[in-house]
Structures are given as C-alpha cells and as structure tokens.
Amino acid sequence: xxxxxxxxxxxxxxxxxxxxxxxxxxxxxxxxxxxxxxxxxxxxxxxxxxxxxxxxxxxxxxxxxxxxxxxxxxxxxxxxxxxxxx
Length: 86
Fold this sequence. Notes:
Blueprint: E1 2-5, H1 6-11, H2 13-21, E2 26-30, E3 33-38, H3 74-84
Parallel strand pairs: 1-2
Antiparallel strand pairs: 2-3
C-alpha cells in the first residue's frame, strides 16, 4: 500500500489514479496522520438489485416494528452532539 501526503496527491492526482486503476490502494496522509484510503472499484462489490424471494409479502404488507420505548429527548441529544464539535 502506497502512502502519500495531500500535497503530493494534489500535484500528481492523475498519476496516482492510474496506480489505483491498476489495482493499488493508496493511503492519504495529512502530515503523518492517515485520513483516507483510495481503493480501486471492483465489479464484484457492486450493488445488485434482485427480486424478492418467492412467497415474500409485498413491502406494503410488512408490519413495521413498534416504538422503541426509550425515554430519551432526541432533540436534546442532537443539540449536545452538534455543540460538542464547536
């Protein structure tokens, strides 16, 4: 696996993408910290849509689960999470 810094990726993007197209995985570093992987797309990992199994009920007939019954204030949790990043 090749490791490259962001500046090098920006300067030689086409060259690095050719490497990825050839099957190589690249780790992108922000200074010395890994921040991303650039990996080749493989056909076998593609999303496949298939028909429902024989005898499966139509989606509009599938019962939805009931409420979770948790005693949480979702809005308060969301606000706490957003405030923690500031």
